[in-house]
Amino acid sequence: MVDEEDVNVKTRKPRQVSITRSNCKACIRAKVNKEGQFEVVAHVIQHNHELTKPQWHYLHRSKRKMTEEKVVTIKTMKSSGLTTMDTYNYMATEAGGEQNIGHSVVDHLNFCSRLRMEQIEAGDAQTLVNILSQEQSEDPNFFFRVKFDKEGRICNIFWRDSMMLEDYRIYGDVLVFDTTYRTNRYNLICAPFVGINNHWHNCMFACAFIGDEMTDSFVWLLQTFFKAMEDRKPTSIFTDQDQAMANAILEVIPNTRHRLCIWHLEQNAITRFGALKKDKEFKFAFNQCLKMCVTEQEFEAKWQAMLQKYELTEHSWYKRVYELKDKWCPALCRDFFSAGILSSQRSESTNHAIGFRASKATTLTEFYTIFKKTTNRWRSTEKYDEFTCSKSIAFTSLPLSGMLKHAAQVFTLSLFRNFEEEFGYSMATTVQMLGSNEECLLYQHLDGYVIIASEHLHSVTRIPDKYVSKRWTKFAKTEAWDRLKNQDPKQQYIPWRQTMMRKYYNLILKSQENEETRAFMEESFRNSLKMVEDLLASAAQKESAEAASNIPDVADNTQSNTDASSASSTSTCVPIILDPKRAVTKGRSKRAKGGLEKSKRKRKPALPPPNSEFGSKTPNLRLF
């Protein structure tokens, strides 16, 4: 008879180990004599096992060592984004094989694991706050806020640097953020705030983690964001279809136009198509209503025609979507600036850029490092775009047009192509004057939407200044570049370091084949190392007092849920920060994908071409 208690006891699988001890008596014994030298007193030569072959000697523990030089190399490669095995393979190639590295692959994996744990030895949350505090000491305009729960655990955290503030001052008229991703071990919600720069590329405004998707959390997040951004409100904001977020937006920024992500709407719609999923004409008609309508009358006509044709008038989902038409229909969103965005995929691309290295096992500290590298990569792209625009002018298809020449001089290359396209459509517009008086002119537009070709009517060869939006020009960020000269000093040392490394590497190559030159190099290294250490010790004594006085009080950036007003703490004591609990949210560890996205991608046939007559082309929304 089997005892029930014995059945419920979980038995651990025994560890599989190999026996390496053979009780071999071979040894060498030595002692220190009166002269202070080692003296061999016993030597047993006979082994009871086969000796290691010469090609395996490098695997012995006595032959393996993680030197300081290798530690620096591994840390540099890990910080650049290489995986653990990539760093090992590189070092093996550089050394001429694994046998020449000086440590095994297991040693390498163990060291990288210890390195990761040492980074968060004080605790993941505490380490992140320490990093943010250090950033604030180096960048006076760096801003971060941390909110705790009653147990002293982080529940919300927000940060932005000085460059993000400058970007928001210029491009903050449109704000995009999406909270459907989880990219950390605590399942906290990643909420990046993203905008669009003058080259039609992403720019980062801020980033945050929140513990839940309740209205109060979104209210805290938005209030903190606008406090960090000098209380500047955007013209429009794009989000996913989260009701708690919509409530928070209505409470914090009621005058900002809230837009929904068409991408999410489109994916949800496809799952509702049912038997119509294979109907190409229906999908084309729905896509026309979703993206291609220019006027409200056109949208209403096409929407009603689609519902009646496919008998969807009483469908509850289409009714709900229609009630929200003001938040997603382009034809109903022409009265405010939205930079031509139709979805929050700007923010989703941010999550994708970060998520390719972040996972559900990523710590907050590791995420912050990945986030900084992603932001720096975007800024490098922006600098390249600025350089390209400063050294070139776009080629125009109508070189005799003064207005196009002027547009090529002021707009960035990407925006000029949009302007040139719209300019071409305006040239094809048919305009008839029906009457005039001293105060106004009455026109009738044919075959399209109204665009008065004023360059023909009044010989205008330049775009009036009031119609040129500075945020799309080549000069949008000129003043910001002049102000932001406080580059990280550590970044300034990298070119010098790389140059000196190449010089010393070449010198070592020249010295390696001669015994005297090798001895000279070793002696020079010891002398140089001693001098450098003495100089650094002297400099450290002078700067220690100044460095201690510049460290800000972490408590000034913390908030607690225990206070009903959630006011900033004024305590001078640095709080002990605990790691957050694993959040239970409405989402999943990563954005939930529908069957459409999970299915294998196939080449889709082209949709039926729209009417080729002028006026069927939707105007570029970036210009509105």
TrEMBL record:
<dbReference type="Pfam" id="PF10551">
    <property type="entry name" value="MULE"/>
</dbReference>
<dbReference type="Pfam" id="PF03101">
    <property type="entry name" value="FAR1"/>
</dbReference>
<feature type="domain" description="FAR1">
    <location>
        <begin position="11"/>
        <end position="52"/>
    </location>
</feature>
<protein>
    <recommendedName>
        <fullName>Protein FAR1-RELATED SEQUENCE</fullName>
    </recommendedName>
</protein>
<feature type="compositionally biased region" description="Basic residues">
    <location>
        <begin position="583"/>
        <end position="605"/>
    </location>
</feature>
<feature type="compositionally biased region" description="Polar residues">
    <location>
        <begin position="613"/>
        <end position="624"/>
    </location>
</feature>
<feature type="region of interest" description="Disordered">
    <location>
        <begin position="547"/>
        <end position="624"/>
    </location>
</feature>
<feature type="domain" description="MULE transposase">
    <location>
        <begin position="174"/>
        <end position="268"/>
    </location>
</feature>
<feature type="compositionally biased region" description="Low complexity">
    <location>
        <begin position="557"/>
        <end position="572"/>
    </location>
</feature>
<dbReference type="InterPro" id="IPR018289">
    <property type="entry name" value="MULE_transposase_dom"/>
</dbReference>
<dbReference type="InterPro" id="IPR004330">
    <property type="entry name" value="FAR1_DNA_bnd_dom"/>
</dbReference>
